[in-house]
Amino acid sequence: MIRFLTAGETHGKALTTIVEGFPSNLCIEEDYINFHLKRRQTGYGRGLRMKIESDKVEILSGIRLGKILGSPISLLIKNNDWENWKAVMSSEKRTGNAEKITIPRPGHADLVGVTKYNFNDIRNSIERSSARETAARVAAGSIARKFLEEFGITIGSYVESIGGIYSKNNLLQTLFENNFKENFKAMSLSEKSDKSEVRVLDFEQEKKIINKIKLAKKRGDTLGGTFVAAATGLPAGIGSFIQYDTKLNADIAQAIMSINAVKAVEIGMGFLLADAFGSASHDEIIKVGETLSRKTNRAGGIEGGITTGLPVIIRAAMKPIATLMSPIESINLSTMEKVDARRERSDFVAVPACAVIAESMLAWVVAKHFLIKFGGDSIEETKDNFSSYTKKIFKRVKRNFRQ
Ligand code: EPS
After folding, report:
1. Which among 152, 67, 139 has a CA at the least distance from the CA of 364?
2. pLDDT for 255-266, tens place per residue?
3. Could you tell me if 222 and 320 are in contact, meaning their C-beta atoms sit under 8 angstroms apart?
4. Is the pLDDT of residue 181 over 90?
5. CA of 260, closest atom in ligand 1
6. Is 355 within 8 Å of 158 (Cβ atoms)?
7. For residue 303, how far is the Cα from the chain centroid?
8. Is the dihedral of CA 187, 193, 195, 201 positive or negative?
9. In order of start, what are the domains of the chain with their CATH numbers?
10. Pocket of ligand 1 (CB under 6 A)
11. Atom of ligand 1 nearest to the CA of 130
12. Which of 32, 94, 95, 124 could be a cystine partner for 119, CB 3.0 to 4.6 Å?
């Protein structure tokens, strides 16, 4: 079973991640992880912090001469901004007079954090609840992604909307109404969306979105949006219906929901299925050559918690960033009086980054269930197990039911 743990505060010295459980001999280098770290940092609408940070990973253990050893992999991402926060974030006893934060921002973890952890300074809540932590997740997710690529499984994403501005072309509908078994690679979505400043696939929509972000900035406001992430190349049979926590769809939903500011997740047609007839909701089973497939992919590649072999497609919604330059109402905890919420440097929009983080979390969960099924201590062993299963996958079904 693979697992990872992250540590680090947003203005602390660094973020660290420990990743464990990937088979030995998988090739991975810092450049590969850095490529995805950089993708997470782009996007029109980020704040001034992104001018300070330029995330680079340092591999501290678990990888030798470009290959995974099987021992825990530890990864370090330094925070450049630490230089400006040394006194405020020192681990030593308070020496100076660092400002105590007393006004919580609605929608952020400020108030719930001080309530739960019994803090007398909101700074203590802000630091770990910040989405900066997701850089460490992208580093861990990059190893999962590299692992999946060995099996032809790719992950991609695009931003579907920001501030309610959608494209006229509903690509999602096209994805659901086709089975795209052979020729669609999820990675191709990112290859296109990475070229856009807001990671959309439609140039007209991009222009409208950028104008809306400009408006939000002018008003001291923020925006959220929706995004789509997909995984392709998975064989049928990953995940299980045996228990609540073995279902692939449930694990994906948890992983995506865990991303800061995500408020909704759908798999396949999701909420739309609630309004449709059954006959327009399910994917008819068809024979394609010697294998079985589906005519459509409204289920988003998962039935009964198990992959069907069609693209796994998820869609999620991110709420607008909670830090507002034109703040809404709050209470000053030191006086208990009504005040405007605290202003601080932040992003105006982070949906493009959120989609990249979702790719990483999707890669992680898919790799986890993939390894539960195929196991292996070395990548060679995993590949043997994978090919012996996939070679016979529908032959077995056919043989079992032959009369
Ligand atoms: C964040 C607030 C901003 C973001 C940060 C997440 O940071 P700061 O408060 O230092 O301006 O830029 O995101 C990152 C640093 C990052 O790497 O994504 C927050 O409150 O969640």
Report:
1. 139
2. 999 999 999 999
3. yes
4. no
5. 21
6. yes
7. 22
8. positive
9. 3-388 (3.60.150.10)
10. 10, 47, 49, 53, 130-132, 135, 260, 345-347
11. 21
12. 124
